[in-house]
Specification:
Order of helices and strands: HHHHHH
Strand content: under 5%
Largest sheet: none
Radius of gyration: 19 Å
Length: 210
Amino acid sequence: MTTHANTHHTSKRSATLAAMGGAAALLGGLLGAAAAYMESLAPKGSPGVYRVTTPMVAALAVSSILLAIIGLLGLAVLARAKGRSYWAAITAAALVAAGVASLTAFSVLLAGTASESWGWWVFGFAGFTGMWIGLVVGGVHALVTRVVPRWAGIAATVTSVVLPLFNTETAAVLFAVPAALAWALVGGLMLREAWGALDFGHGHAPAVGA
């Protein structure tokens, strides 16, 4: 009886955490797509001058990335509950988080200073690369473990792979839109899977991995 109760509690907790991760990925993807689209509408800078990113676009972009980290952790929870490998998703979340930390260090300490040039390559470029690799690893994890439909994993992987083409100064900023929407889709599918496992209408929580 006790073992059954513990299994029930663990299953419900896993489903709840996975649902939270799915909701975060869904919202983060939508915010990221909105940020990229809004950035594409901003006036282009003159030669040698970067396009000015508004505080609203910056807030949307940062929120999107932070929510993506939570979404990747939720993907790990869902994979573990289903008895699949989950370390790749945790690694992906760690890479994106490290990328955010590196970019934050560049923005706070070096941007606009005499050290901006080398600081970009040490912290800025490294940060973007870390986030990119993290999203690709997360997409491959979703594809291989099939915690979401395979086509969703393919969409997340392919759209993440092409993100190096992203450029805030040109129309290439829109490369972020399909990637963001693909991850929003993955989040929605995670949420549906976890929500179904919670089974609110019947007052119990079947195992997510059932």
